[in-house]
């Protein structure tokens, strides 16, 4: 009887130990997942979707919309400035959106790996609108289609500023003060 009791206690102790180890492993796995870089979400928009969400929005948000591409050297060189600007305004009503003009066929092979490698924190979306001439002027009347290009738009007041070419975080801050 004594041996049966000991065997039963050992069995329960072993079960408790296994449950505790499973809990520890699950906790460790959860902690490790916190340090794995998150996969960046890159939505694909038509021009009409971009126009509805940002260009015709009447929200309190001030939008900084940068048009760029992975194959554009000045665009890529400008990204750290845009990322610094985005980080500076994190949690505010200033929203940075990086609108990629890469080809849709390069979405998985070039754009997603690029966004991951550069660890872009700004919202990135791919504009899937082939007929550039039909929408470029709708973004801003001064834009002729060259990139990089940045539109700063106060959705509430409808005021905007346009930068044709590269920009800096300092310049963007000066521009948003003009339309706030």
| Tally of separate domains | 2
Uncertain runs: 33-38
CATH superfamily of the largest domain: Glutaredoxin
Main sheet record? 6 strands, mixed
Strand residue content: 15-25%
What best-fitting shape do the alpha-carbon axes yield?
A: elongated
Which class do the helix and strand fractions yield? Answer: alpha/beta
Descriptive terms for the model:
180 residues; alpha/beta; Glutaredoxin
Write the layout of secondary structure elements.
Blueprint: H1 2-34, E1 42-45, H2 47-55, E2 62-68, H3 73-88, E3 94-100, H4 107-118, E4 123-127, H5 136-139, E5 149-154, E6 160-164, H6 169-179
Parallel strand pairs: 1-4, 2-3, 3-4
Antiparallel strand pairs: 2-5, 5-6
Helix pairs in contact: 3-6
Describe this entry's structure for a reader:
The protein is α/β, with parallel strands linked by helices. It has 2 domains: 1-36; 42-179, Glutaredoxin, CATH 3.40.30.10. It has helices spanning 2-34, 47-55, 73-88, 107-118, 136-139, 169-179; strands spanning 42-45, 62-68, 94-100, 123-127, 149-154, 160-164. The radius of gyration is 25 Å and the shape is elongated.
Quick recap:
This protein is of the alpha/beta class and 180 residues long. It has helices at 2-34, 47-55, 73-88, 107-118, 136-139, 169-179; strands spanning 42-45, 62-68, 94-100, 123-127, 149-154, 160-164.
